[in-house]
Amino acid sequence: MKTVSIKSGCSGVDVAELDRLLDLLIGSPRPLARAALGRLLSVSPSGMGRRLEQLRALNVPVGEGRDGVFVDCADTLDARAIAAGLADMPTPPHVEMRRLCESTNRLAASGETPGLYLAELQMGGHGRRGSAWRQAFASGIALSCAVRMPLQRFDGLAVALAVAVVGALEALGYAGIRLKWPNDLYFHDAKLGGLMVQAEGGRSPRLVVGLGLNVHEAPRLEERATAALDQVALPGLTRNALATGLARALSKGLDKFARQGFSGFAEEYHRLDILAGRAVRLVTAEGPVDGVVRGVGEVGELAIETPAGLCHYAAGEVSLGACRSI
Prior knowledge:
Elements: E1 2-4, H1 15-27, H2 34-41, H3 45-57, E2 62-65, E3 68-71, H4 79-85, E4 94-101, H5 104-110, E5 115-122, E6 140-148, H6 157-171, E7 177-180, E8 184-187, E9 190-200, E10 206-214, E11 217-219, H7 229-232, H8 239-260, H9 266-272, E12 278-284, E13 287-296, E14 302-306, E15 309-313, E16 317-318, E17 324-325
Parallel strand pairs: 1-11, 4-5
Antiparallel strand pairs: 2-3, 5-6, 6-10, 7-8, 8-9, 9-10, 12-13, 12-16, 12-17, 13-14, 14-15
Helix pairs in contact: 2-3, 4-8, 6-8
């Protein structure tokens, strides 16, 4: 597994223009000359040079030789391959993929059609509570699934879907993954990925489930240890196959939650709980709470044994760095 430093972006980027350029480069079976790229995109030589430098500033592996410009990346996403892998579902989703975008969650929230949205690189990916989510180009999974609002209540949904994701990864050959409440995926004490759920209103109300997962590389972060799936196991899967399996798991998880609520996932969560029995500090809007984790409640809320007794919390942030085994 590689750990890489990620630049958060570069100034003056036209995301749509760079996305089109990347699509041409990755879609071509051979390198493309700068002049040919310029003609295809109606861009001057200086404009093309600027765009290539912007891609390199984003750590996209752009190379250039005597035959032309290319992207040095073997495992790229293909929307058609993912759609084909999901074609036997009762209602196959619309699948849309970007080489570069601001955020797959934004695409899923604003797209004309609910469905599955993926990207090789996000400029503004984020997790719970607005925390930044960064991955190197084509190194992980960044997907968002949007469905028409299927539920009246969402208590415990994010925790349940995280359980569904780990189940799918185990079925694909990845063992030893655990969950840190409410919806972070961990390998040992290193973060592997995370999931978030948001309800979008407006003219087309929908539920958006965003999933970020490190696959080939883990970003180097000062605030936490990170891991990638390639560190867990090497079952020889492409990211297309991985994305297909995860999309199926999210769809099945939503259906199961609609029928059973969190109770249908509770037993599996207890098996995967990385915090159980550990002393923690939970940061809430009302202030910090110290105690020992005793699993979760009926709707996935964190149960902490405190000096005042057993308390349940539906929201908050647990720092693994503050944990100790007891």
